Amino acid sequence: MPNVTANGIQIEYDTFGDKSSPTILLIIGIGTQLIAWDEPLCKKLADSGLYVIRFDNRDVGLSTKIEEAGIPDINGAIGNLMMGKQIDAPYSLDDMADDAVGLLDALGIEKAHICGMSMGAAIAQTVAIRHPKRLLSLMPVYGTTGNPELPQAKPEAMQALIGPPPETPEEGIDRFMDTFKIFTGPGFPFDEEWHLEFAKKTVNRSFYPVGLGRQMLAIMAHGNRKPALAAVSVPTFVFHGSEDPIVPVEGGKDTAEAVPGAELMIIEGMGHDMPKLGGAWDQITDKMIEFTNKIVS
After folding, report:
1. Where are the domains of the chain?
2. Which of the four pLDDT bands, split at 50, 70 and 90, describes residue 1?
3. Does domain 3-293 sit in CATH 3.40.50.1820?
């Protein structure tokens, strides 16, 4: 896969489709590599007439690792957050949003549909806030505004993210499987074979669990985006699962409420995933294609 230097770091990326087509930039979630945007999903979007870009965020996959930041103290940060103290993060979601725009700059792309999943949804929102002229549309998938008044993650789901990082690739595969069994919503079957194959591909491509903790600090330090989202004027479509255990559905509702004119799709029974079995995957991608096709680039 190719890479570029942008915003002071190296960013690994991949593309599908014709570069002369309208661009959709896919931003992945915490601790997750670009391959989590499944290749058939990317090809489906490309076949619909979009130029698809997926990339590794900083501190994950094959993009630059912020190793000088050291081992993050997640429990200490949670304690500071509960006491209303400032969180010391090595970088912010602002930096990660600037990474995404830097990638567009390096590829000579002026505007794009910006779609983010989970942490990627928060980064996509931040792109819309910081770089409003670079968006054709905004599409957050199971994201939230950072509003502290919203319901919090279920304890078992949060523990899956903030527990001690796995020490070996084998432990990483086991952790991945355990985590996504927790994240999968009750309305859709868990695709054991697909998730196991994906977990193996992930650790074989890059095993760097410490990066997840530093990304977590960036999320925790960013605060409430809801007031700033009121100024977002691009077409916005919000996707969320009704049974999301890590970002409760109220996060999606709050996002749609915050952005003027935003549309909202709640998929009943879906958790913090995009299930290939049972139809949720197609519901989301079909709506993305329908939504983007209406927008003049």
Report:
1. 3-293
2. confident
3. yes
Q: What are phi and psi of 81, to 5 degrees?
A: -65, -40
Alpha-carbon distances, residue 206 vs 115, 137, 165 (angstroms): 23, 31, 14
- Structure pTM? 0.96
The answer to whether the beta carbons of residues 12 and 55 sit under 8 Å apart is yes
What does R_g of the chain's alpha carbons equal in angstroms?
Answer: 18
In terms of DSSP bridges, do strands 237-241 and 263-267 run parallel, antiparallel, or are they unpaired? parallel
CA distance 171 to 292: 40
In the chain, the percentage of residues whose pLDDT exceeds 70 is 97
The amino acid at residue 44 is: K
Q: Quick one: pLDDT at residue 171?
A: 96
What value does the mean pLDDT take over residues 94-117? Answer: 98
Please give the mean pLDDT across all residues of the chain.
Answer: 94
